[in-house]
Amino acid sequence: MTRLARGRAGERGAALLLALVLLVLVETAALLLAVALAADAREARRQAARGRLDRLVESAAEATLARLAEGDPSGLEPTALGGGTVASEVERLAPEHFRILARARRAGAEKTLEVEARFTPAGVQILAWRPGPLRAAN
């Protein structure tokens, strides 16, 4: 083998080594990207579940407000809705002043919403709208 042939063989070995290092770096970057995307997807699913639970508890509060506006001071019995269960309780604080505690359960989680409302001849006046924390359902 001549000196020229040995030099080319060394260059081919260095090029192969460089290609292998680049391949490992690209695979590592792809793996890190896949892990990050999986974490983002999990968080998006959690946020969507929280949003559905928020809409359910707000629906329970709004349905109770509608019943109060019609003169029915009872809360909602547990009712299946949107893949979960909603319910509410009503407490009369004054003749036209009520406190509503709405609850929603879905997929092992529970959310509450406390609403204070006053009914006047002009309509309903919301005095407080206090969402509770997300908790594991018992």
What distance lies between the first and last C-alpha atoms, to the nearest angstrom? 80 Å
Order of helices and strands: HEEEEEE
Low-confidence stretches: none
Main β sheet profile: 6 strands, antiparallel
Q: With helices defined by DSSP (H or I, 4 residues minimum), what is the helix count?
A: 1
Which structural class should the secondary elements be placed in? alpha+beta
Strand content: 25-35%
Whole-number radius of gyration? Answer: 31 Å
- How much helix, percentage-wise, in residues? 40-55%
Number of strands: 6
Dominant shape = rod-shaped
Q: Report the mean per-residue pLDDT as an integer.
A: 90
What's this entry about, in short?
The chain has 138 residues and is an alpha+beta fold. It is 49% helix and 34% strand. Strand 1 and strand 2 form a beta hairpin.
Can you walk me through this structure?
Strands 1, 2, 3, 4, 5 and 6 form a six-stranded antiparallel beta sheet that branches. The protein is of the alpha+beta class. It starts with a helix and ends with a strand. The longest helix has 67 residues, at 3-69. The protein is 49% helix and 34% strand. It has one helix at 3-69; strands at 79-81, 84-94, 97-106, 109-120, 123-131, 135-136. The chain is rod-shaped and about 95 Å long.
Characteristic terms for this protein:
alpha+beta; 49% helix; six-stranded antiparallel beta sheet; 138 residues
SSE layout:
Blueprint: H1 3-69, E1 79-81, E2 84-94, E3 97-106, E4 109-120, E5 123-131, E6 135-136
Antiparallel strand pairs: 1-2, 2-3, 3-4, 4-5, 4-6
